[in-house]
Fold Diphthamide biosynthesis protein 3.
Amino acid sequence: MSFYEEVEIEDMTYLPATQEYTYPCPCGDVFAISLEELWDGEDVGLCASCTLRIKVVFEEGDLPELEELEEEEEEGEGAKEAGEGAREAGEGAAEAGEGAAEAGEGAAEAVAKLAV
Ligand SMILES: [Zn+2]
């Protein structure tokens, strides 16, 4: 894979509205890569109008925090996480139930000892 250029992320333009980094392409359009892709370890900026691409040089420490954009996809992930939370709560309840069962056994043993 060959790149038109290696570009330091400081030399790119950040667009907070779309959370994208852009860099001028010689064809007149811009190379673009989203902040989310950068956080995912992607480092290839593509131009929408031609086949050129750039390699973005960055450290994760250079990146701004990824903010949740309101997209259906991410809402779906939120719902999934809520579901996992509910499942974990269910597991906690099951463990509490086991604890209660053990306490019950202890009480039965105590009664048995008293009966002796
Ligand atoms: Zn281009």
In short: The first strand starts at residue 5 and ends at 8. The beta strands are 5-8, 13-15, 20-24, 30-34, 44-47, 53-57. The longest helix spans residues 72-115.
